[in-house]
Amino acid sequence: MKEYIKSIATWINTVWQYNLGRIGLILLLAIVALSFIALAVVPSDISIKWNNPKEWAYTPKLAPPDWVAFIGIQRAPHAVINVPRYSTYEEAGITYYVYRAIYNLDANDYPQNIAVVIEKLNPLVTKSAMDISLKISLTLERPDNNIVTLYSGAKQLSELVSVIQQESEYVLFTDPSTTISSIRDLVSSITGMSKIEFSQKYEPQLTAGALYIKYCFSKFSLSGNELRISPLEGTYRIQFSIAIPTKYLVELGLRGSPIESLSIIVVGDRYGYLGTDYLGRDIALGVLYGFPVGLLIGVFAATVSVFMGGVLGVVSGYYGGLVDEVIQRFVDVLGNVPLLPIMILIGAIVQQVFESPWLRLLMIVVVYIAFSWGGTAIITRTMTLSIKAEPFVEAARALGAGSARIVFRHILPNVMPYLFASLVFAVPGAILLEAGLSVLGIYHGLPTWGSILASAEEYRGVAMYAWWWVLPPGMSMALTSFTFIALGISIETIVDPRLRGR
Amino acid sequence: MFILSVTRRLTQRAITLTVSLIAIVVLTAVILSLTGYDEKVYKAIIDGEKRVYQQQLQRMGVSAEEITRRVREYEKTLISLYGLDQPPVVRAFMNVRNIMFLNLGYAQSADTCSVAGLPFPCRVSDAIMAVIPRSILLVTLAEFVCVVIVLQIGPLLAYKRGGILDKTVISYAAIFNAIPLWWLAMLFILIFAYTLGLAPSTSRPIVAAINSLNIVEIVKYMWLPLLVSVVGLLGGWLYSVRAMVLRVSAEDFVVTAKAKGLSDADVARKHVLRASMPPVITSIVLALSTSIFGGYMITEAVFDWPGMGTLFRVAITNSDSPTVLGLVFMSSLAYVIARFILEILYMILDPRVRI
Questions:
Q1: pLDDT in tens, A373-398
Q2: pLDDT attached to residue B355
Q3: What are the DSSP calls for B130-171, one per residue?
Q4: Which of B188, B312, B172, B276 is nearest to B233 (CA)?
Q5: Reduced to 3 states, what is the DSSP secondary structure of residue A402?
Q6: How far apart are CA A190 and CA A184, in angstroms?
Q7: Residues A292 and A35: beta-carbon distance below 8 Å
Q8: What is the DSSP string of A272-324?
Q9: Contacting residues of A for B187, CB less than 8 Å apart
Q10: Of A108, A391, A434, B343, which residue is the least packed, with the fewest Cβ within 10 Å?
Q11: Planar angle of CA A485, A373, A34, nearest 5 degrees
Q12: Of all residues in chain B, what percent carry a pLDDT higher than 90?
């Protein structure tokens, strides 16, 4: 055991001697560290969450990273405001609970939406079988002191309870028709444009793409007959109120608000460390998760394929004869099979036959392995043949050593370093193949670099200048394969002294 | 003697390649029938054929009842033709026949036909035949540009090992070896097509330009894919040229040439380059078949270049299984044929292999 550690230490030390090796080792350390961080940070049910649009309902869609603000790109900030406190008042036999949040728009841009997330109700309410009608309203007070009503209506308490039980939260978005009618009043009072003209000219397009939200955060001016809008920067006050007839409160035995935990979310236009994609998915999460998955795919495929190639190569070279002939012909055939079309077919079938993303990925990797061990087998065979002819092997045989002893004591130790080098070289292969298959439309469902890039390709991320969607996964992929190429080159140089510089 | 050895070698290669092709087809057929995927494929094919047949009958003005009756009869014929009424073992054999003769009926979606530039409905075999030349065109042109560039840089590499140029070439090769070409394509599209507006974002309309031989239009749709391919493929070229040039530089005849007092430029161009190019070219040309029918298809798909890669992607995303199946076979066949042709080329160009 001690010996092994010592020899590994010597190896690392030797690799460190080379510039390329040093870069490779540092990068490898970083990749492994990122993988562990990913395993700790990313939720374990990510494969389900990633593909469930409801999980990403109130993150910004197609938003650049948060830090673009520092380089002067004007994007509305994203704000998740947990509102623990509320004020309450009673009027005409109805008790109102009012939650307030402040949002500061400091960029020349519009937020994408506003949402209220009710995370928890008072247990007394949850247990009660009573069905009470609640009056709910959501308003936005703008920096110019005008108020826009975003939601106004009634909800049944039972609906809230059942949704929260099923999905662990209740999300209330702005209501288009309420908001638009409120905007109509606002525009006419600010610019003097008649309400009818506004309805006819602008309202038909407002609902599409939640464009009406822009109007909530806009300055208005008239140029000729046209309405001009531009972002209105400043402090916005958002107010959410929920009203219950007081008599029910007494019946429920409730003191205080029926809501225990509530957040007001202003869906901004920049988000997280690496932005979001078209569904609002956090790209940082996907890219980070790509590290352990990519490493697993690459290392697993490389190890098994090199092991297979090594074993069959040694067997082929050592025993010769019919075994050799069969294996070599088989390798010949394998070498002439175009890998990508076969993988595409397998991928297409796997997509139809299996449900679980992990199983799909496993099948793709297994088939890849089945087709990729040939090269290693040829090299190992040649090496075995030349080692077999060495005097020390002959001497061992003369001393009465059996095949097993010769293979394990003499041939394997000599072949091992080469196998190790080819293992390192083989790691990027499977990672790049998985990514390529994803781009060609074969989905397994896990967030990998390939699948993120594939969705950027399919959902026009490239067309929408979403560089944050294209660059990080691709760079992670390129960096990972560069790491292994760099390590492979330096290991190869150690293993084969002829390759060492002058 | 020479002719004999060449014939023997070529025959050997031909046999291996044929066996490989048969292995691919048999494997495909067995996988298909084992997973039951072929049932789905055939159902899709039969539906397509039925639809076309029905339209034909309607055009001929046959009565509705008659149409239903005839279509049902036709369906029965098709079911027995494709072996849907047979057990999976028998069907596996029929799969082999159907794949080999591209007996795959009509493409299932209009998108697939539009990649090929054909009106819907189109036959799977026609669609595939239409796209193969386009795939070959792009990558061959890219490799040709690479050769031209490498012929310029090659002699310079021979002067000095470890110089700035040498280091640049090594880093270039290492970096572009790690970057997948298709990702580079995405970046270039983002920059050149969408941000700068210098190129169209999709190359699909080139079909019309090729048909009308409009050179300006062809260049417009082609320059960006070509540029990306050259940038990406050049790394491999430079790396092998460098290795070969350095090996040749150490040979005796080069030393002799230098000793004769020839200038560095003459030594590099006339002696080193001339000796090192054939093996480089042949090895890269041999790799061409791998790139055309291998990873390069992904790059094609990113550019929406109307070749096999795009056809693959469109067929997969539209669940057009017959087209996918046909493409798998045709690209394998094209690959095997290309390998064989290039193998012959290899022997002509590189005298060392002839023995």
A1: 988 999 899 889 988 888 888 898 89
A2: 43
A3: HHHHHHHHHHHHHHHHHHHHHHHHHHHHHH-TTSHHHHHHHH
A4: B172
A5: coil
A6: 10
A7: yes
A8: TTT-B-TT--BHHHHHHHHHHHHHHHHHHHHHHHHHHHHHHHHHHHHH-HHHH
A9: 470-471, 474
A10: A391
A11: 40
A12: 6
At residue A236, the 3 state secondary structure works out as strand
Least confident of A168-177, B253-262, B340-349: B340-349
Backbone angles phi, psi at A134, to 5 degrees: -105, 140
Q: How far apart are CA B125 and CA B129, in angstroms?
A: 6
B178, B195, B321 ranked by CB distance to A481: nearest: B178
Whether residue A357 contacts residue A414, with contact meaning beta carbons closer than 8 Å, is answered with no
Q: Read off the pLDDT of residues A136-183 as tens digits, 9 standing for 90 and up.
A: 999 999 999 999 999 999 988 888 888 888 888 899 999 988 999 999
Q: HSE, CB side, 13 Å, CA atoms: give it for residue A192.
A: 4
For A260, the token pair is 């225990």
pLDDT of A502: 36
The mean pLDDT of A387-414, rounded to a whole number, is 87
Q: What mean pLDDT comes out for the span A408-431?
A: 88
Residue A411 has pLDDT above 50, yes or no: yes
CA A488, CA A493: separation in Å to the nearest integer? 8
Residue showing tokens 């809501």: A259
Q: Which two tokens stand for residue B143?
A: 């490799």
Q: Do B180 and A465 touch (CB under 8 A)?
A: no
> What's the pLDDT score for residue A468?
92
Work out how many CB contacts closer than 8 A connect A with B.
143
Q: Using CA atoms, how far apart are residues B159 and B168, in angstroms rounded to an integer?
A: 14
Residue-averaged pLDDT of chain A: 88
H-state helical runs in A154-262: 157-167, 176-191, 195-201, 203-206, 212-216, 246-252
Q: Which amino acid is at B335?
A: Y
Lowest-pLDDT choice from A8-22, A57-71, A261-275? A8-22
Nearest to A336 among B17, B28, B36 (CB): B17
* The pair of three-digit structure tokens given for residue A174, joined into one six-digit string: 């702005």
Q: Is the pLDDT reported for residue B342 higher than 80? A: no
User: Are A348 and B331 inside 8 Å of each other by CB?
Assistant: no
Q: Which residues of B touch A364 (CB under 8 A)?
A: none
Facing A333 at nearest CB: one of B16, B180, B302: B16
* Residues in A 390-449 with any Cβ partner in B closer than 8 A: 428, 432, 435-436, 439-442
Rounded to the nearest angstrom, the minimum Cα separation between A451 and chain B is 12
The runs of H, that is alpha helices, within A373-448 are 374-388, 391-398, 403-405, 412-439
Are B183 and A474 a contacting pair at CB < 8 A? yes
Distance (Å, rounded) from C-alpha A245 to C-alpha A131?
12
> Is A353 in contact with B297 (Cβ distance < 8 A)?
no
Reduced to 3 states (helix: H, G, I; strand: E, B; else coil), residue A71 is helix
Least confident of B1-5, B147-151, B311-315, B350-354: B350-354
Q: Which residues of A touch B190 (CB under 8 A)?
A: 462, 465, 467, 470
Burial of A36 (0-12, 13-18, 19+ CB in 10 A): exposed
A303 vs B123, more confident? A303
User: What's the CA angle centered on B316, arms B312 and B321, to 5 degrees?
Assistant: 100
The CA R_g of chain A, rounded to the nearest whole Å, is 32
> Is A465 at the interface with chain B, CB within 8 A?
yes
Task: Please report the pLDDT score of residue B353 as a whole number.
Answer: 52
Question: How sure is the predictor about A451, in pLDDT bands with cuts at 50, 70 and 90?
Answer: very high
